[in-house]
Amino acid sequence: MPLGIFVLIAAVTILSIFAIERGENQREAAQLNARAITIAAALERRANASSAYLRAGAALLSGMEEVPADEFRRFVSELRLDADYRGADGIGWAKVVRPSEEEAFNALVSAQGSRTAELHPRPDGNRPFAIPVTFLQPDTERNRQALGFDMYSEPVRRAAMQEAERTARPTATERIVLAQEGDGEEAGFLIYMPVFEPSAGGRALKGFIFSPFNAQDFVQSALELDDAGSFGISLYDGSRSDEGLLASINDGEDQPEVRSVTQVLTIANNPFQLVITSHEDAGLSGLSMATLIFGLLVGALLMLLVRMLTQQAQEDEASLAWFEEQASIRNSLTRELNHRVKNTLANVLSIIALTRRRSSDIEEFADGLDGRIRALSATHDLLTQSDWGSTPVRAVIDAELLPYAHGGDHEVRLEGPDVELAPNDALSLGLAIHELATNAAKYGSLSQPGGSVSVRWKAMTQSLVRVEWLERGGPPVKQVRSRGFGTDLIERIVAHELKHPVELDFDPEGVRCVLLIPVRRATDFVLRANRSESLQG
């Protein structure tokens, strides 16, 4: 009998250990797959952001007859990129240089302080033109090493350029070593966007705006958004091989690989493979060891073991449900972002149409359009910094009133609680404040010493906030006046977007405007919900 009880307890213990290890393996597999999806999404966001900047640069440069160095530096600085250029080494311009233009190009490169100070390697006559690195920002000693390098002379770069020219889309190269690496061997890639100029035949290639990427830095920059944890990360160009390896982090080469997940991602029209690996831990898990020791010693622990197994299964189920929920949130946010982009474009088209009807000449049209588009841009910067999550009311108003906040001859007061706005509502508020501030600077209380502007906001309900703009101390407001664009924009576009009427009064003592803005749940716009709250809910 004692032997039978011992054998029974030993059998139950062994089966329990097997179940625990199997549950651990399933949980680790789910975590590994979720981490692969998350990191792949972070890499694609980084690359897509750089591609968007290149598209914007191509649109700007195509309208210039020449691209001066100062204009290119100003364009890059106005993009307001983060400190690491979203994982890139910068943004560059490479113009088409024909044989008759080599001397002029060498003089241009020499003026920038390049060590080489000329086009290299020298064209061999087999190609109709060269496409050397003309400008590369930021202007660092490392980046100057690439100036003058004819990227069209190298087959891998040339193939990507030709594909980008054919499709007129940003295109990434295969694995290369960047010219600014010098004698280094660190792998990287480039994204090219063609720039065309009108010609008698339709359009002609003017050059390429591009971003070089050190692959290791690119992966590291994405991990600032989504940490790798204890998993190994490898990025491959094409197939999983040593020749295609771009970057590797926490690869654990000294430990045997247990499992890996491969996630295919597309960066600028070129497929890459992201491989996430986990490595074998020596021995059994802590829970299995405890079950083995105490199961063999005390049969009474069998009930406790059942309870622990049940709890472990519940945690695994909750983890899998959380991963599925996050995938659903990510898909919903993609659809929401598409909707926001369409709304923003609709706002831009409305602004253009109204500005055109209210402008008497092209200069007035350009000035009015420039200020309104910059107002949209300022609010977009705030939304980008929050990863298109909720944005504080104070931050939106501060961004639009910044040019007037430090004047010594007038006063700007902001009062209100901390209230977070949804992205579309923040854009509408930014447009309204911009129009009110512009009007106040031209005709109202900010146009003369002693004037003041107060902006107060308070929560009417949990889902509605009231924002009041009030001017005092300025010139008397004309009671007989023509209807301006700002009035149309606030009472039509802004009111339509906010789905609440706008109260706009032109009192003799100063303009007064009241906006009612909906307040939606912040969790509707956050990319990653808090896991602990999700599991508790």
TrEMBL record:
PROSITE patterns membership = CHASE
Quick one: a GO cellular component term? membrane
GO MF annotation terms: ATP binding; protein histidine kinase activity
- Please give the InterPro entries that the UniProt record associates with this protein: CHASE_dom (IPR006189), CHASE_sf (IPR042240), HATPase_C_sf (IPR036890), Sig_transdc_His_kinase_HWE (IPR011102)
Q: What class of enzyme is it?
A: transferase
Q: Where are the transmembrane segments?
A: 282-306
GO terms in the biological process aspect are: signal transduction
Instruction: Please give the superkingdom of this protein's source.
Output: Bacteria
| Enzyme Commission number, as recorded | 2.7.13.3
Q: Give the catalytic activity.
A: ATP + protein L-histidine = ADP + protein N-phospho-L-histidine
Q: Which UniProt keywords apply?
A: ATP-binding, Kinase, Membrane, Nucleotide-binding, Phosphoprotein, Transferase, Transmembrane, Transmembrane helix
Query: Which parts of the sequence belong to the CHASE domain?
Result: 63-239
Just give the chief location class.
membrane
A single Pfam family it belongs to is CHASE
Its localization reads: Membrane
Name assigned to this protein? histidine kinase
Native organism: Aurantiacibacter arachoides
